[in-house]
Amino acid sequence: MMKKWHNEVLASEICKRLGFNHVTYTLDTYKDTVVSICPCFITKDTELITCYQIRNDMLRNDNIKDYEEYGISDARIKMENMYIIDYLIMNEDRHLNNFGIIRDVNTLKWLDVAPIFDNGESLNITYYDNEELHISGEGRLFYEVKPFDEIIKVVKDIKRIDLSKLDGIVEWFDELLHKYQNITGFSDTRINRLCILLNRQINKLKELQENS
Q1: Whole-angstrom distance between the N-terminal and C-terminal Cα of the chain?
Q2: Strand ranges in the chain using DSSP code E only, listed in sequence order
Q3: Which residues contact 153 (CB under 8 A, 6 or more apart)?
Q4: 5-211 fold
Q5: Over the stretch 136-188, which tens digit does the pLDDT of each residue have?
Q6: How far apart are CA 95 and CA 66, in angstroms?
Q7: pTM exceeds cut of 0.70
Q8: What ranges do the domains of the chain cover?
């Protein structure tokens, strides 16, 4: 069974520190298993229209510019933020059903880009074994599978992100993983590798800022 709980909570913490609109994930235990839990971000008066559902009404370019056509404030920034978090945690599964637009069910008015959610397939969780942490280095930009170093180029102004707000987050993540170690069975080696990978991505993003 793939263990995703730590990725969801990590993504939530990064988004909180960077000020990204997101769904907040917290931890709980259920039947001797650690699980991540989150509130529903849809109300009785709203609905999530996924990118997959609305793409037929787009300009069919499958890119961020299409979202700007819906008149949503800061649509590009919010979409870029999603790809920044995907870069930092190496989210491999940003498919067309886990991002989209919130719509008013009564007026059918487009309200906002959906908050960032569903970040479990990250930090190479699919490819991890006890001997090695396999790094694929690829994610999804709409329908395209691309290296994360290519996907991050959709962000027009990478310097707008204050990465100093992530100071100490690797240590926070290490402490979180060790806190539940007796339940998850994560080895010290695995925890160390996950923290090294997170630290590497943060430093790579800092280098991009410096060179842009």
Answers
A1: 40
A2: 26-30, 33-37, 46-50, 100-104, 110-113, 138-141, 144-147
A3: none
A4: 1.10.1070
A5: 688 988 878 899 999 999 999 999 999 999 999 999 999 999 999 999 888 89
A6: 16
A7: yes
A8: 5-211
